[in-house]
Amino acid sequence: MNTRLHPTALITGVAGQDGSYLAELLRDRGWTIHGVSKPGVEGDSIDAHVVRHEVDLSDAGTAQGLVREVEPDYVFHLAGISSVWRSWNDPVLTTQVNGISATALLDACFTQQEASGKRVVLINASSAEIFAGSGVSLQNEETRIAPTSPYGVSKALAHNMVQIYRSRGLEATNAILFNHESPRRPDTFVTRKITKAAAAIARGTLDTLELGNLTAVRDWGWAPDYVDAMAAMAEYGKGDDFVIATGQAHSVADFVSTAFEAVGIDDWRAYVRSDSEMLRPIDSARMVGDAAKARDLLGWAPTKDFDEIVKSMVQFDMTEEMAA
């Protein structure tokens, strides 16, 4: 654990779901927080206590300059293109943003550590999608890396680079995050699309919800819990790889059913249409994680179950719908 009274953290993707929750968590602990966001991101989505930097981290020189300027004790690399669907439309950009940026940041942290003699800890947001083609129904840290999408490949590149720099002496950790949701999830994600639609249909402002694959099975957790896990990794004392997941399997249809039930609609199928255009070229059928290692070594456990997560999101969207 770092001995400085007020550690300095650098959070990439600070305006996103995970970045915003992490900034609030570390702010409450009295940390100094620097955040990286894309140029043009609304400032009011970023905590007022965060020192903001608008830079392109895929440029090695920019990453070096930022780390040298901030001198962080901890770096949380959460930025990236997080949509599997989008990665099929722009695989080159996805690889650059997710793979090259992580490599540039790792190298910058390693260079800073070597030059200053002061430890730099890096936590990388890896993804369950690196296991999508493994053929294993319950994935853990030892599961074979076998991505099936450009997104998964880009995250696998970053994941492996973390392990390379760890072998060189950087305290670098992969947080292998399974799906995690909250009211801050963008509505480009199917979960938020579902909860917003359920609220709108219940209010009479929307007639139908169009979805792709209803049979895909995922392990859905609560985003603030996953942020807590990454903070625990930072203070663990050595670099490692940790799966963060609930271990519970639910289909997209389960998510729809629970969301519509939360707004008092029993027959959700009357409102849902299947759109073949929304199907991914290759969709991993079952992604469920085994977080036993995080539980044993970090003392981490999820605090919200599936029903609570869905209902929390629907309640938020109902409030937003009524305020509109």
Structural write-up:
- The protein is of the alpha/beta class and 324 residues long.
- It has two domains: 8-180 and 221-244, Rossmann fold, CATH 3.40.50; 185-218 and 249-284 and 304-323, UDP-galactose 4-epimerase, domain 1 (Alpha-Beta Complex).
- Helices cover 42% and strands 17% of the residues.
- It has ten helices and 14 strands.
- The chain has helices at residues 17-28, 60-70, 84-89, 91-116, 150-167, 190-203, 223-234, 252-262, 292-298, 306-323, and strands spanning 8-12, 32-37, 50-54, 74-77, 121-127, 171-177, 180-181, 209-211, 217-218, 221-222, 241-244, 250-251, 272-274, 286-287.
- The chain has a seven-stranded parallel sheet, with helices on both faces. The protein has a three-stranded mixed sheet with strand order 12-9-14. Strands 7-10 form a two-stranded parallel sheet.
- β1, α1 and β2 (32-37) form a beta-alpha-beta unit.
- The longest helix is centred in the N-terminal third of the chain and has 26 residues, at 91-116.
- The mean pLDDT is 92.
- It is an enzyme of class 4 (lyase).
- This is GDP-mannose 4,6-dehydratase.
- Residues 10-313 form the NAD(P)-binding domain.
- One of its GO terms (molecular function) is GDP-mannose 4,6-dehydratase activity.
Quick summary:
The chain is an alpha/beta fold and 324 residues long.
